[in-house]
Design a protein that fits this description.
Elements: H1 2-34, H2 49-58, H3 74-85, H4 98-133, H5 138-151, H6 155-178, H7 183-187, H8 197-228, H9 231-238, H10 243-252, H11 256-280, H12 286-295, H13 299-327
Helix pairs in contact: 1-13, 4-5, 4-8, 4-12, 5-8, 6-11, 8-11, 9-10, 11-12, 11-13, 12-13
Length: 334
């Protein structure tokens, strides 16, 4: 197991290096095509050449390679890797450390993902298990149709419908019925509130989790159908074990391997969905900060947050691989 984990960690480090290199090359090309983003520091005020040069030096944009279209700017890339290794992810155009911004925004993103994970577990596992146990019956067909309907509604459509059709009238009704600070009024609040982070994150989190639950439903159903027909399940039934015991101890465990694999894949989709969700619902999370940084051409924040999100994704993938190996010991020898 130790060699397996070491191999996965080394692969993760290589993946992370390639992600950072690709991000650097794309950002460099964007600067070379669109002009130096240091101009955004001054807004609508035209800076003097000395002011512009000072800002470019402060944010590491004063290298002449940024003026040469097609140059990979490997010098600034090496400098950035050295800074990242020492924990320095740069600072925003407003002079705030990126690590400080992330430490303030990350808790809200973690709250959002906690709601998403619970939604995945409740909807995916419950409906997938029901569909597998009632294969071919109306409930199975209804759940399969529901998963197709969920797939047809991407997260930004769900958020638009909720925010502009349901949120305002529901919030108004809840305020008039239960009061402005009541839980129902906060649940349907159209925008995020720092004073009530959990209450105002529940509905966006459920919508984001719902958008990713269709794959879980189908995967759980397919995996459990295969397990229901396996020899070890028939052997367990022949021993007189109850159907509940067979389902929990022999079907769910063995069908967890493909589900654990899917968690890593769906997590990356949810991460992208979190950027959209936090941006549209004005949530002060890592996705919302990234959304705002892109609008403001704040290069340091964009690169720093995308790099940190890549680190989180690589760590989640390694954890999924370890869980995968723990569920099926044969995998570690592959």
């Amino acid at each position: 197991m130790g060699r397996y984990i070491t191999r996965r960690v080394l692969q993760g480090v290589l993946t992370l290096f390639l992600v950072i290199l690709l991000l650097h090359l794309l950002t460099t090309l964007a600067i070379q095509l669109n002009g130096n983003p240091a101009q955004a520091f001054f807004g609508d005020r035209p800076p003097s050449p000395s002011q512009l040069a000072a800002v470019e030096k402060r944010y590491g944009l004063d290298d002449s390679c940024y003026d040469q279209l097609g140059s990979p700017c490997l010098g600034p890339f090496v400098d950035r890797l050295g800074a990242y290794a020492s924990g320095d992810f740069g600072e925003s155009l407003r002079g705030r450390e990126v690590t400080d911004i992330v430490s303030a925004a990350a808790p809200n993103t973690l709250r959002l993902f906690a709601v998403v994970a619970v939604t995945w577990a409740l909807i995916g596992m419950t409906l997938g298990s029901i569909a597998a146990r009632r294969r071919g019956k109306p409930s199975d067909q209804g759940i399969r149709g529901l998963s197709v309907l969920i797939d047809a509604l991407p997260i930004f459509v769900l958020l638009l419908i909720y925010k502009y059709v349901f949120s305002v009238p529901l919030s108004k009704w809840a305020k008039e019925t239960f009061g402005s600070d009541s839980l129902p009024a906060l649940l349907f609040k159209p925008s995020f509130s720092l004073d009530h982070p959990w209450a105002t994150l529940i509905v966006p989190g459920i919508l984001l989790g719902l958008a990713g639950s269709a794959a879980f439903i189908r995967l759980v159903r397919a995996a459990q159908l295969e397990s229901y027909n396996a020899d070890h399940v028939r052997a367990a039934r022949s021993k007189g074990l109850s159907e509940r015991h067979v389902a929990v101890h022999h079907v769910v465990r063995n069908s967890s391997i493909p589900v654990a694999t899917a968690v890593g894949i769906i997590f990356t989709e949810a991460l992208a969905g979190a950027v959209i969700t936090e941006g549209m619902m004005n949530i002060y999370g890592m996705g919302g900060v990234l959304w705002k940084a892109v609008q403001d051409s704040d290069v340091s924040v964009v690169i720093g947050i995308v790099t940190l999100l890549a680190v989180v994704t690589v760590v989640v993938m390694i954890v999924v691989d370890v869980v995968y190996a723990a569920l099926d010991p044969r995998i570690r020898y592959d």
